[in-house]
Amino acid sequence: MTADELDKRQAIIDACRRMNALGINQGTSGNISVRHVDGLLVTPTSVPYETMTADQIVFMAMDGAHAPDRKPSSEWRFHRDILKSRPDVNAVVHAHPTYCTILAIMGMEIPPVHYMIAAAGGDSIRCAPYATFGTAELSEHAVRALEGRLACLLDHHGMIAIGKTLDKAMWLAVEVETLARQYHGCLQIGRPSLLPSDEIERVRQRMAGYGLSEG
Ligand code: 13P
């Protein structure tokens, strides 16, 4: 194994543990992947993050092939399909953060209640329709909901954040949960006013200069 591959495997484990420390994930319900050579490195299914080791991270080719003694995340399909269809993206983070999941259970998208939504690439964070976890159908819904975007909710399930690097995808995952929490809080008081699309576009351009560039 090259030093680069080992670094990526360790970075995935560190990010998994960070998800739990940050409270954006519970137990082993989240999963992470990073593009590697002509495939991807993806977390194993149902392995607690505290005990996960670098050799348990699964290398998968873009056709889904992997070593027979390795068990990739049950959500490997959307990890593979997102990385395959989005050359602009190198990392995928999936978790069930509480506020994102509350909105997703209600089938709601996140509208432009705060300018930071621009960090997710547009003026909303869409909610992909429900499909059973691990299915090709869920993967298709997720890829569509992410078109032109860097995050989406999954109906009755959770959230996906993607990025050019794992650090950026992780940062966005935390930011999306913050937006979901803010929107949820607003809905306790009333119906929040929304920022217009042209303002979100202006923010998107400003963010590129600020260091919060997309990806
Ligand atoms: P793993 O299969 O990656 O453990 O996760 C389950 C899950 O998150 C289903 O959405």
UniProtKB/TrEMBL annotation:
Organism domain of life: Bacteria
Gene Ontology CC: cytosol
GO biological process, one term: arabinose catabolic process
UniProt keyword Lyase, yes or no: yes
Keywords, sorted A to Z: Arabinose catabolism, Carbohydrate metabolism, Fucose metabolism, Lyase, Metal-binding
Pathway: Carbohydrate degradation
Gene3D superfamilies linked: Class II aldolase/adducin N-terminal domain (3.40.225.10)
GO molecular function: aldehyde-lyase activity; transition metal ion binding
Domain Class II aldolase/adducin N-terminal intervals: 10-184
Stored SUPFAM superfamilies: AraD/HMP-PK domain-like
InterPro entries noted in UniProt: Aldolase_class_II_sugar_metab (IPR050197), Aldolase_II/adducin_N (IPR001303), Aldolase_II/adducin_N_sf (IPR036409)
Short name of any one Pfam family annotated for the protein: Aldolase_II
Protein name as it appears in the record: Class II aldolase
Originating organism: Bradyrhizobium forestalis
